User: Fold this.
Amino acid sequence: MSERRLSRGLRLLGMLAPGLPQMVAGRLGAGGSAFALWCGLLAIVGVRWERVTAAVSGPVDHQLALLVLIAAGAGVWEWSRRASGKGASGGGSAGAVPRSLWAEGLRAFGRNRVAVGGLITIATLYLLALLTPLIAPFDPTFQGDLLTERLLAPSLAHPLGTDQFARDLLSRLLYGARVSLSIGFIAVSIAITIGTVLGAVAGFMGGWVDSAVMRVVDMVLAFPRLILLITIIAVFQPSIFVIVVILGLTQWPTVTRLVRGEALSLREREFIEAGRALGFSRTRLILRHVVPNTLAPVIVAATLGIGETIILEAGLSFLGLGVQPPTPSWGTLVADGRNYLLGAWWISTFSGLAIVVTVLSFNLAGDGLRDALDPRLRR
Amino acid sequence: MIGYAIRRLLGAIPLVLGIGTIVFFVLNMAPGDPVSLFTSPNVPPEVLDQMRRNMGLDQPVHIRYLRWMGAMLTGDFGVSFARNEPVIDVIRQLLPNTLILSFSALLIAFVGGVLVGVFQAVRQNSIWDNASSVVGLFFYSMPSFWLALMLILIFSLGARNLWDWPIYFPASGMTSIDHPFLSPAGQLRDRFMHLVLPTLSLSLVLAAGVARYMRGSMLEVIRQDYVRTARAKGLPERTVIFRHALRNALLPIVTLLGLLLPVLFSGTVFIETVFAWPGMGKLIVDAIGQRDYPVVMACSVLFATMVVLGNLVADLLYAVVDPRIRYE
Assistant:
């Protein structure tokens, strides 16, 4: 009887503070992150109430941020409700046999704490980037008093200091995260789409298609990517759009090589033969049977690739060949601080740290995914 | 073996030509032509037309392509717009500087990376292994230009201006202003001091990659039967690790050389820019800013050729050091 009351109390608690019941139940990691997320969202609503209400009729990115805020809150709440319900009815479901390769991989990934930490950091970064219009203390291009607020050291008013134009560095970093993170994500999406299709077709068809595709792949891979990018950017005026497309269009060869290797071995398997015997078209065999089976290594490559792309984009912006000022990107912020390295060390240091933390999380998550999705590496 | 080498060398030629083709056509997409650089109200159109004719720009694109290819194969990369001297002369001055930087970085990266990797593998899953893995991944995730700035901040600016350390390193250039007036030993020391920070910032990122790879390779070898045999014979652990295991674990590292070259050259672009190191990387960045297309073309073809050759050397080395590899 008392146990029931306790669980009802917990459920009530879950309504107010999702994640807490899970923490009480012993799932410290999941419950804690959910609770932290909930608190963070509440804090945003509390501290930035006027901005949240104004966002309803504000610019698109403010509306999007509001939408994300609501969605994240609802998501955490719903997760907590379901998880506590499951915990009450299902009991210890540890002995259950996972069904698919993906479920098995997910469990293996969940056991790897470092990798999960990386994934949580990534999720936090993307959430921050989406919520930026609501949380950034200042507008990224807002200039304070050039005489008194220039190159200020970190303080309460400016947690990470100000830059040479008296702009708040934290706000610029947050807005820069939107640019850097979305460039990484979109460029890699382009790359894996092209790479997977070309690789699967080349590996599956073989013959002249294969050799033609692979010659191009060899050629692009022999080219140091940065030099190729620089050359192309020398021709087109750098803009976010151009950077994204070019980064995407120069990364597919690695994915193609990977997928082609997988497709070559898949082609000889029985299930493809069975598909052939059933009279499936080549398109169907490639799209429905080859591509899904090459997905695991592609996901790993994509995760690691986003980190690599973020570094590349930062590098291009650092050289002045990427995102153009005044739009903040982490690379341009590092470059901004270069001339004030000794007097205003915080500009370059914090911007660079943002890159390192992001790329490190992608590398950790990518390594974890590789270990989890490859049955041979699983312990 | 020699037959294989020749075949690989022949195979590399179309690759380099193909890369040259890509570069040519990419830069051909550029709006306007080189002559438009000289356009101003003071220059009559007839002069511009004459310049176009002199540069061969009145020819159709395939003729220009063939001419450019032919010229490039004979080492004629045209004349730099910005420096007004033959591109080949510019490259001849700057290439050695880049090679000094690259080779010292490669050397440190491989020696350091291999040592760390071996250490990690021998003490697998110990606290030192985990700690150095984390530190390694940290460096591996670091943009080299940021690392360079941080090194400058600490070991050059901070060391000299804030903390008065007895030793600080110069933050830019290859030599000091008073370099010609130093004694020969002083000149050598001056050069070395200028080399330290750029080399470090290039090699730390590379070394982290090498160590990651080396650890895996060494772990594989250590589990082999012959290592157990060597231990069973009563050989000291040092001999087992360095004479028996390391030699075989080093084999796959050779191929890493080919993989790391593009990373290395990308790195030199940033490092040379940050440290104002007069080399190829800084040259290409400056050339982009000045729309100096002949230099851009020559640099990118040269970089790509070096990568192709590096891969070739790595493959051949691998065949030499590993007798198990047999090529048809």
Residues 87-94 of chain A have pLDDT under 50 and may be disordered. The two ends of chain A are 42 Å apart (CA to CA). Chain A has 16 helices and no strands. The CA atoms of residues 264 and 276 of chain A lie 16 Å apart.
